[in-house]
Design brief:
Layout (H helix, E strand, L loop, with lengths): L1 E6 L14 H6 L3 E6 L6 H10 L4 E6 L1 H11 L5 E6 L5 H5 L6 H9 L2 E12 L4 E4 L2 E5 H7 L3 H7 L1 H11 L6 E7 L2 E8 L1 E5 L21 E6 L3 H15 L7 E6 L1 E10 L1 E3 L2 E2 L4 E18 L3
Parallel strand pairs: 1-2, 1-3, 3-4
Antiparallel strand pairs: 5-6, 5-16, 7-10, 7-14, 8-9, 8-13, 10-11, 11-12, 13-16, 14-15
């Protein structure tokens, strides 16, 4: 196996401890090199260079943001993706039962098999689009991520995101939206949060869409709509205790294509990375079934 590890040296955990996994790959007869991803270097360029070098497996060593960037580019190639979790939350790795300890993750990667997973796709009115592995969020979570200090996040990890959320909440208001699911009108109203999920797990301990699967050819959408102090309190309490919102303050949908019509500007995020522009107008969220070849533990 010809493989290349691409790591993010600026993640919360710092450069990936490559020296701890290379012996496992060498013992399996794999030929592996390492590339450190520099700021501003597009994932597409890294994947193109890997393909030109004869690489068969690109191993993402980092967090969910690094994984999304590489997965988005790999989906258009014959390459497969491997995962060595080394970021802040590592939600996708947890969902796929990939251990966080480097030696264990490498051992399972060597003995793994290829599976085909879905990717989500965000499309905007002006033709721009982007893929996601984990989730696309609009509203509360994105506002918190936009308010998160990047330097503090590298030092203290998830705590920085919590502080960003605290800073964002006082200025947050519910936004008006209309939703169509697979072409049919499904909901209209005001929401704090829209979350289109490809996985059940979100932000490590939360499960806002517990039925979501990475390989079912569908996306799961959760709308947090709680209005008034009592409903908001029930929703927050339900998140704290059960990891998902109370049914009285949320709606759930499942489908292959969601179309949202937004009134006003709404912050957005993909896999924990805030989108630079605020979203407005028509937003389309679709699934690409089986678009990503991933080498996973054969459990």
């Amino acid at each position: 196996m010809r493989a290349r590890i691409i790591d993010n040296p600026y993640s919360f955990r710092g450069p990936y401890p490559v020296a701890r996994v290379l012996p496992t790959f060498a013992a399996a007869g794999w030929e592996v090199d390492v590339v450190h991803r520099l700021p501003g270097l597009a994932g597409g360029r890294l994947i193109s260079e890997a393909a030109a070098a004869g690489v068969e497996l690109v191993i993402a060593a980092g967090g969910d943001g690094t994984l999304r960037d590489l997965a988005s580019a790999i989906a258009d190639t014959p390459l497969a993706l491997g995962i060595l979790p080394g970021g802040t939350a590592n939600v996708v790795a947890r969902e796929l039962s990939i251990p966080l300890r480097p030696e264990w993750a490498a051992r399972l990667l060597v003995n793994g098999r290829t599976r085909y997973l879905d990717l989500g796709r965000l499309g905007l009115e002006d033709g721009r689009w982007a893929r996601f592995v984990l989730a696309c969020g609009l509203g509360l979570d994105a506002a918190g991520l936009r308010a998160t200090d990047a330097g503090l996040k590298r030092r203290v990890g998830p705590l920085a995101i919590c502080l960003g959320l605290v800073r964002a909440v006082p200025d947050l208001r519910r936004f008006e939206a209309r939703l169509c699911v697979d072409g049919a009108p499904a909901w209209e109203g005001r929401a704090w949060q829209v979350l289109a999920s490809n996985t059940a797990r979100y932000a490590v301990w939360l499960r806002p869409s517990p039925a979501a699967l990475l390989d079912d050819g569908l996306l799961d959408l959760c709308l947090v709509t709680a209005s008034g102090p009592r409903a908001a309190a029930r929703t927050l309490g339900s998140f704290a205790v059960r990891g998902r919102p109370d049914a009285s303050g949320a709606r759930w949908f499942q489908g292959r294509a969601f179309e949202l019509e937004l009134d006003g500007l709404v912050p957005g995020q993909l896999d924990g990375s805030p989108l630079a522009p605020l979203l407005a107008g028509r937003v389309r969220l679709t699934v690409e079934p089986g678009a990503l070849a991933v080498r996973l533990p054969d459990l």
